[in-house]
Design a protein that fits this description.
This protein has 154 residues and is α+β, with helices and mostly antiparallel strands. The protein has a single domain (36-149), classed as Beta Barrel (Elongation Factor Tu (Ef-tu), domain 3), CATH 2.40.30. It contains two helices and eight strands. It has helices spanning 2-25, 76-82, and strands at residues 36-48, 51-55, 60-64, 71-74, 96-103, 106-120, 123-132, 138-149. It has a six-stranded antiparallel beta barrel with strand order 1-2-7-6-5-8. A hairpin with a 2-residue loop joins strand 5 (96-103) and strand 6 (106-120). The chain is globular.
Length: 154
């Protein structure tokens, strides 16, 4: 009886270790290719049809989650330059984003799908589709949070 219990115990430990190693082999190493989220703050903006315009966007803030915890700033030009790079680019798979508008009445959030970014007359423009929420025709003090992406994985 003791031999059977020990054998079952030993087999279960070996099976558990084997399963753990098999699972570990399939884990993506995010430390090698971290994914980033992007934040843009605008002094003002507007929505006309499906064209979102953001004015007074000084730069793009990017950051990654654990284990890397990388953060920094980049120019709008550099961000747009990377937009269509790689097989998993924002051009190929347009990102979702949250536009958060803060005004005297509180905060309004809208979930969007962004595409075709363009800097024109010192404003950042996107073709957009509203997924959820509402955006006023004109607004002040807005921040847009853009989905995660690995622009350096190309």
């Amino acid at each position: 009886m003791r031999y059977t219990v020990r054998l079952v115990f030993a087999v279960s430990i070996l099976f558990g270790i084997d399963t753990a190693f098999a699972t570990a082999e399939n884990v993506i190493d995010d430390s090698k290719y971290p994914r980033y989220l992007f934040v843009l703050s605008a002094q003002s903006g507007s929505l006309e049809g499906n064209k979102l315009t953001l004015d007074g966007v000084p730069n793009v803030i990017y950051f990654s989650d654990r284990p890397n915890r990388i953060a920094g700033h980049m120019s709008l030009e550099k961000f747009l330059e990377m937009w269509d790079k790689g097989a998993d680019s924002f051009k190929e798979d347009p990102p979702n984003a949250v536009l958060s508008i803060s005004d005297e009445y509180g905060e309004k959030n809208a979930v969007l799908k962004l595409s075709q970014p363009l800097i024109k007359e010192n404003a950042l423009n996107f073709k957009t589709r509203i997924i959820e929420g509402n955006i006023p025709h004109a607004f002040q003090n807005a921040t847009i949070f853009i989905d995660n992406w690995c622009p350096w994985c190309y």
